[in-house]
Amino acid sequence: MPINTTATINTGTGAVATKPAAFYNKVLLKTLRARSFQHEKFAQAKPMPKHAGDTVNFRKIGVLAPATTPLTEGVTPTGNSATITAISATTKQYGDFIEFSDVVNFQLVDPVLAEYSKEQGVQASETKDVLVRDELHGGSSVMYAATRTSRVTLAVGDKPTVDLFRKAALTLKKNKVKKINGKYITYITPEVTFDLLDDAKFIKAYEIGQQNKPFIEGEIADVYGIKFVEVENGKIFSGGGAAGANVHSCVMFGEEAYGVTKIEGEGDVEVIVKGLGSSGSLDPLNQRQTIGWKINAFVAKRLKEEAIVRIESVPSNA
Q1: Which residues contact 308 (CB under 8 A, 6 or more apart)?
Q2: Is the pLDDT of residue 14 over 90?
Q3: In this model, does residue 318 exceed pLDDT 70?
Q4: pLDDT at 105 over 60
Q5: How many CB atoms lie within 10 A of CB 107?
Q6: What distance in Å separates the CA atoms of residue 134 and residue 19, rounded to the nearest whole number?
Q7: Looking at per-residue confidence, does 233 or 60 come out higher?
């Protein structure tokens, strides 16, 4: 991971000390691992070579229909043709920084920089999570609670039900979407969890089928061939429903439904520390210092529209 090799820190005694920026880098990465943001977990990873531009191509292989026509002895059949669809995505840079004045006292283990590097670790991780989430929830296949036909018609009382999720799973099955380790994955908000745990069909299946099953992080249930995973950054369309109701969007998907990319050999996040006086004549009195982060190349992309279904509703506690 490329980072500045040193950072100039005010010791509070009028002296200037040099501390490796790698210290702050380790604090940031530790925080990234500690938080639970799930949306990238099941993405198809696509590393990009360095110096290869800003566009990445995912490839989608076309489905071959069953060959039900018998072969004729001595006759070569017509054969088939391969269909490969290139799905392009352009990577972007993301980042942020915080500026501190020289009155901040960086003594001992520099608590201010250390604490803010933790917070920036959360910010960087959540940035990626939200980018992936928004891409996932932009698909064309959507179902609405209470037989509604659009988001704007969803109203208070149009709660999520397990039957709605079963219909979504049926859609994926009809589309011949492969499961992930034998299950379809569904990201849901805590408010949707609350209502599902009041659904009699959900509870019955939960009680029968939960024994001795390993859970993944955030999973609340494994029923009807669906793993329900509660996510910290669930998608909510604030005021998107009838009379300004908040519409909660859940997403169900199968194998290789979406992908993410990063540059090969590079860490996801670059930490950048600029010490007092590092700006030269732009900071003549050594009054400003910054700590920031940057993601050099990242993009999330839906790869198979037929492998993703969005389920929208208005939970009772929306």
Answers
A1: 136, 139, 141, 251, 252, 253, 257, 258, 302
A2: no
A3: yes
A4: no
A5: 12
A6: 39
A7: 233
d(CA 286, CA 100): 11
Token pair of 222 as six digits: 């494994």
Identify whether the C-beta of residue 259 lies closer than 8 Å to the C-beta of residue 303.
Answer: yes
Report the predicted TM-score, pTM, of the whole model to 2 decimal places: 0.83
3-class SS at 28?
A: helix
123-155, pLDDT tens digit by residue? 998 999 999 999 999 999 999 999 999 999 999
Residue 161 to residues 193, 220, 278, Cα–Cα distance (Å): 10, 15, 58
What is the rounded distance in angstroms from the CA atom of residue 12 to the CA atom of residue 103? 8
Question: Chain centroid to CA 131: how far?
Answer: 6
Distance CA 164, CA 142 (A): 11
DSSP percent split of the chain into helix, strand, coil, nearest 5: 25, 30, 40
Q: Which residue has 């959540």 as its token pair?
A: 126
Give the per-residue pLDDT at 34: 56
Q: Which residue has the tokens 């003549």?
A: 284
Which segments within the chain are labelled E, that is strand?
7-10, 16-19, 44-48, 55-61, 84-90, 92-101, 142-144, 184-188, 219-223, 226-230, 235-237, 247-253, 258-263, 270-274, 288-302, 308-313
